[in-house]
Amino acid sequence: MSLLQIEEPIRGEQTTESEKKFCIGIDFGTTNCVCSVKIDGNVTMITDEFGEVIIPSVVLFKDSDVFVGNQIKKKIKNGLENRIFSIKRDFVENPDAKKIYGNHKQKLSPIEVSSLIFKYLKNCCESFLGKEISKCVVTVPAYFDERSRFAIKQSASLVGFEVLRLVNEPTSAAYAYGLERKTRGNYFVYDLGGGTFDVSILKLTDGVFKVLSTGGDPFLGGDDLDKLFACKIAEDFLNLRFEDLSKNNKVILVRKAKLLKEKLQKETVLNEFLEIDKKQINLEITEKVLNMAISEILDKTISISTAVLEESDLKENEIDGFILVGGSTRLKILISKIQERFQLKIFSDIDPDLVVSKGAALHADGLVNGTENLLLDVTPLSLGIETAGGLMEKIIHRNTTIPIVKEQEFTTYEEGQTAIKIHILQGEREMVKYNRTLGEFVLDGIEPKPPGIPRINVRFMVDANGLLSVSATDKSSAIQKELEVKTTFNLEIDQMRIMIEESIKNSSLDMQERLLEESKVDAIRFINELQSMDSDLKEICSAEELNKINSYIKLLSKEIQKDNREGILDFLKKLDLATQSFSEKRVKQKIKSALIGKNYDKL
Amino acid sequence: MNPEIKCWNCSNTFKKFSFFCSECNIIQKPLDLDSFKLFNLNYGFSINLKKLEYEYYALQKMLHPDKFINSTEKELLYAQIHSSNLNNAYNTLVNPVSRSNELLKCKGEKNKESETFNDLEVLNEVLDLQEVAENINCQKEKDNLINELNQTIEEDVEKLNNYFIEEQLLNAKKLTVKISYLEKLQKDIKNNVTFTN
Ligand SMILES: [Zn+2]
Predict the structure, then answer these.
(1) Which of A200, A45, A198 is nearest to A128 (CA)?
(2) What is the CA(A5)–ligand 1 centre distance, in A?
(3) Interval A136-160 mean pLDDT
(4) Domain limits of chain B?
């Protein structure tokens, strides 16, 4: 127990209540933003100039002015078709890609558009509190990748926010429940936001909030429910496909669908009018129609939830409750679907629209004023680098607690290679092309040596925000290259390619020698492999087969000694043929599958 | 045997590694410690997991970068590395296979995967179990097999503990390989066995 005797160090003086620092909690959502701050021990929701807590994440350019949030609804009468919605969704695609938004003349990037929202939020906070503020905690979808996270932080920083921490939305919600409701145990957080869906399982003990596993879908959210319902209305009542409507009518119909969806939670049948192109259409809509339109998407969220539970290694009866987050979780059909699948107590008593921001404010206060509590989050997606053959080698696996540092050694594959390209990837797939590229860089100046000799140490570091930095060191020469992973620019990639090509061109051996070297490496590897399987060979092969294999090994070894590439290739081929039936039998005996592990789904 | 450690801030020296300086309370430079040393544990296989979790949380509450928001960049970096080391070490110690491998490493037994490929006895045992896995065709059989594997793993972990007590490191090494196969098999069954009919 000696470890626990370490005294808690005193850092700075204890702050008195009046000297406490303000740090804002910002839920920067796809559809709405909510800001809050802890004052005098309580979380206060920050309101905009109209007294509203929920600020729509909408931007409108008009003449030379920018309007944000509720300003649009209250101040603008026409030109509404130019509103920019759901900017956060564009972060998942590419936060840096510039395009035309609304009626703005210059192309803008998602980072720039959302920074206008952050600027407005900052103004709201400052006029609400009557003082300048800069520090904040911003929440992000748990399933957001590294690039989107970095971009959100950048966007807030552009307007003078100092982002002390990025917190995952479901983690933030669980933090609010834990602190405000003194919840303890294992909790399932189901967060259906406007544009993203996240699930996390957390363990709450002794003031520690530890995320056990997380999952989700960055392209699935409450907005999709509204759109699906709008499609259904278009088909049933307008006899039109939703896609065939004009842009303006689409917006009108989706807004109407959203409103009807909310009303249908209180009434089972509605009689409403819809005005489209100056025509009045009578809508008689039942809850059943709504449920039919949205069922499939809700089922998908349930199956993602099931998968996350299975991955957590917890059994359902070890979970103490199901926390609902996001406005869409008010849907009656969703609650009954959840209850059908999970026999768990449901928690929704903290307003599902505000709970994420509240958690962020509590965490923000803990960061600047100190706290006994601790959040331990995980990285949602695996991180790794490209290795030979277009495969991704995972260095940090998904659901690893952060911060985390992992190191791995890599080597060269060309004789005399003096540069190595580090291609950083995020995702779960084996093939590089199916995962996301986070960045690329070149480590050059490696001392020319035979392939496999240099030891390149690649270090991945994920900080508490879930942001990655990668560095690589050539252990023999201590050359180090470090980078924070940002978007790669095409020019840089081309430059890298040139560097790699140069390094190969300048290698000390000519092409012929390199080819010979390669064939020797292949041959030696093959012989070693066969020798390591000696006992299997004896068991599986006939005496005749065994003789053949052994004599080819001897002949191949001779060719290697003679440096004869033709001979090596010839006997490699022969040996390959001679061992083919061995490999097949071996596979049949399932030895291979026992060692490598395989899928059983073809049973 | 340990060289003296010097505080980077106040030049106080101490014999044993500590996360904070006993004089000036400043966070210390992380050292390359094995998982047992980091948690100040004896080199033994048997670990009180509840106590370990408690200590892990207690240390994280002091060393997590969240607690160093107002500190210098150097202190923040140290906190980040300490916190990361704690995460790594905790995960290593919680799982019996990785704990055993770490312990073998600390005791000077290198664990090379290729050596173990020839262990036919282990291989046959795993193959038999796999045969069973391939022939299950309902949820109940699947659950039964998972439970059975759980029990086998538990028994083997117990055996492993004895090997370590008796310092039979070679046997410990072999058994660790077997348990890791069993764990993998169990995971595969959990995730991949589905019933088409
Ligand atoms: Zn000191």
Answers:
(1) A45
(2) 17
(3) 92
(4) 5-94, 120-192
